[in-house]
Give the backbone structure.
Amino acid sequence: MNLSIIIPLLNEQESLPELYQWIVKVMTTHNYAYEVIFIDDGSTDESWQIIEQLSKENQNVKGIRFLRNFGKSQALHAGFAKAKGDIIITMDADLQDSPEEIPDLYNMIINQNYDLVSGWKKKRYDSVVGKNLPSKLFNWAARKTSGVHLNDFNCGLKAYRNVVVKNIEVSGEMHRYIPVLAKNAGFGKIGEKIVIHQARKYGESKFGINRFINGFLDLITIWFLSKYGKRPMHLFGALGVIMFIIGFLSTFLIISIKLLKLFVFDESTILVTENPLFYIALTAMIIGSQLFLAGFLGEIILRTKNNEERYKISKEVNL
């Protein structure tokens, strides 16, 4: 099978029939062997009923329905697990991603030997203040932090080799950072293609400004996981030891000075507990001990954790 097209969605009943027809037209024109996997992430409208109807008309259309809304990352994870195509395409269901881009993305993977190609919506039709400027800032920070030089991490239109999606773990809200996850997994040839961004035709965006706040927090998480995810003791343990040593040496110095004044120079001196520096040193020792324990507990958790199911599937069609 040439292509698996994975489409996570939430309440997109108006756009699904049009998107389906558009995809089928492109697939037929280029004579691709394909499957379209719709993942209904807890829609409350008629989206699932439309997916069921489309799956009856076309056996290449497949569907997964979550019991409730678990998030885009979980939807992509479920789609990746089921995908059988040599090349995986992800796209949004709101018609802002054009299926006409699929052949070029496919050819970049096949002919130019990329592991992953990410879309870049260079010209956008979103609000400048509400989305464009925060997006530019977010993408700049992501480039600097991750070392992956993409202009648009948030673009849902991406192409992957099958082996890539089978070897990365998309959890939480890490769908924005799949290229970073791929790089950390050892897939180094990551490309980018300018794609058409179309104005939303139906409904409203499901993502608000809070996605950028969450995105920055996730960026910190993925930075930590990429560097210390397998060895948290190297970070927390090292910081803990440094803090403890600073606190211990400061305490030793304070007590030594007091003893010298009392027994060598025969001078009066304040109580150790009346010295503000003593409490700073004591706090440093306590924080150092806590950081060390955090690293130790992190190591234990890594060695004993079980992979828990992150989402619940209520129905599947053609899978």
Summary: Residues 232-263 form the longest helix (32 residues).
